[in-house]
């Protein structure tokens, strides 16, 4: 049996990450459903190991030591995106939309726990098939999986992946038809004037990059990337102390929570005083790279055989969760968000990230606006909430349920 050390494991993950991108580019169905490339590459390895297991063969063993720091680096980047100045741009709409998403995350967990009990499964099985993997997506599911395993949920990583992937497919299938139904049934149309209330700007006109962006030398770009990398490491280091302190108080929390909070604090201090000179673009690049490598490495080491016998509960719970999300979008979300065209487009995006990922949300909203016209308010509010704000509030929701029923 071949054993790969931590560096070799990440290198192998990088190879299959590129393979995942290549496969997705050549299979239109994968693009249509917004299946992440790391998931494609990682699942190839997991499926191959599943086949080998049927023959009692274990061809390779991975050392996933670097999985944890990669995961923490990604969520630290999420923390750096949590700028209070963004909340001021969308005003009341973003706060209200976030509140609705957080409320539904609670509902998802209650529904999941109730149905898990019906099937004779632990209540926390319902939580991991609730907001952990639906509002949270694959990354949050795999990040929390070790805590659920420790709390007694057998095969938690495999359950998290299966539910998150099925949620992505359901979100892609449901989101656009629901938005279309709302728009046509209520006869909603894009407003003639795109000047928006609550301080939300209209979509900007395209301006040549050479006019708007100053020329930045390669050395300046490299320094900005290095500075961002060092600040992320600093946040991770300080965050480790905070997470350790919270754990000493008896709280069951994901290991990234301290670093994410420190990242948010540094971002808002920098917005106010400019002490760190952060480069949001560099931080996004580092965070995206860390997420991709984390996902592919985590999936390569996934034990898909742990899912044996859980297909029926997973499908029933996900079907019920989908009905709940659709009902929530039709009422109260549509009504509270204004019951207009933008609200209908936002509802479709809401389905996207509350069952799948932000990529699903953007994809389904784009399909609607291509047909019915622009919805600038929807494209401001939904991605901001779905991309990172819900990760903060959902982590709190999950932690409450995890500590209450573990």
Largest sheet: 2 strands, parallel
Detail the poorly predicted runs: 193-213
Report the structural category.
mainly alpha
Which percent band covers the strand fraction?
A: under 5%
Helix content: over 70%
Spatially, the strands of the biggest sheet line up as: 1-2
Radius of gyration: 21 Å
Please report the total strand number as a whole number.
2
- Which whole number gives the mean pLDDT? 86
What distance lies between the first and last C-alpha atoms, to the nearest angstrom?
37 Å
How many helical stretches?
A: 17
- Cα shape: globular
Order of helices and strands: EHHHEHHHHHHHHHHHHHH
Transmembrane segments: 6-23, 30-50, 70-87, 94-119, 125-148, 160-183, 229-262, 283-304, 310-331, 343-366, 378-402
Function: Catalyzes the sodium-dependent transport of glutamate.
Keywords: Amino-acid transport, Cell inner membrane, Cell membrane, Ion transport, Membrane, Sodium, Sodium transport, Symport, Transmembrane, Transmembrane helix, Transport
Protein name: Sodium/glutamate symporter
What's the short story on this structure?
It is a multi-pass membrane protein. It contains 17 helices and 2 strands.
């Amino acid at each position: 049996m071949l054993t790969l050390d931590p560096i070799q494991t990440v290198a192998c993950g990088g190879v299959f990450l590129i393979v995942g991108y290549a496969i997705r580019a050549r299979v239109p169905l994968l693009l249509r459903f917004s299946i992440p490339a790391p998931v494609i590459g990682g699942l190839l390895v997991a499926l191959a190991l599943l086949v080998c297991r049927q023959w009692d063969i274990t061809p390779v063993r991975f050392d996933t030591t670097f999985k944890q720091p990669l995961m923490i680096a990604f969520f630290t980047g999420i923390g750096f995106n949590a700028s209070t100045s963004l909340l001021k741009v969308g005003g009341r709409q973003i706060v209200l939309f976030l509140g609705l998403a957080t409320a539904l995350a609670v509902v998802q967990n209650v529904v999941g726990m109730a149905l898990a009990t019906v099937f004779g499964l632990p209540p926390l099985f319902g939580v991991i098939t609730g907001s952990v993997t639906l509002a949270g997506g694959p990354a949050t599911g795999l990040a929390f999986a070790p805590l659920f395993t420790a709390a007694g949920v057998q095969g938690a990583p495999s359950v998290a992946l299966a539910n998150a992937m099925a949620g992505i497919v359901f979100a892609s299938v449901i989101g656009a038809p629901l938005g279309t139904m709302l728009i046509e049934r209520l006869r909603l149309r894009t407003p003639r004037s795109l000047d928006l209330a609550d301080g939300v700007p209209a979509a900007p006109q395209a301006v040549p990059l050479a006019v708007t962006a100053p020329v930045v030398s390669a050395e300046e770009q490299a320094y900005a990337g290095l500075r961002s990398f060092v600040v992320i490491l600093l946040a991770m280091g300080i965050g480790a102390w905070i997470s350790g302190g919270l754990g000493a108080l008896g709280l069951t929390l994901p290991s990234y929570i301290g670093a994410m909070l420190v990242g948010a604090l540094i971002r808002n201090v920098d917005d106010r005083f400019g002490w760190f000179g952060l480069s949001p673009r560099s931080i996004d690049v580092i965070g995206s790279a860390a997420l991709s490598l984390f996902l592919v490495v985590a999936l390569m080491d996934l034990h898909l055989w742990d899912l044996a016998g859980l297909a029926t509960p997973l499908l029933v719970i996900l079907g019920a969760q989908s009905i709940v999300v659709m009902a929530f979008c039709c009422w109260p979300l549509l009504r509270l968000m204004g019951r207009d065209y933008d609200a209908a487009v936002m509802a479709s995006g809401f389905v996207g990230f509350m069952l799948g990922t932000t990529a699903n949300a953007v994809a389904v909203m784009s399909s609607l606006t291509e047909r019915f016209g622009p919805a600038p308010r929807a494209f401001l509010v939904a991605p901001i909430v779905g991309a990172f704000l819900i990760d903060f509030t959902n982590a709190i929701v999950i932690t409450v349920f995890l500590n209450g029923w573990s």
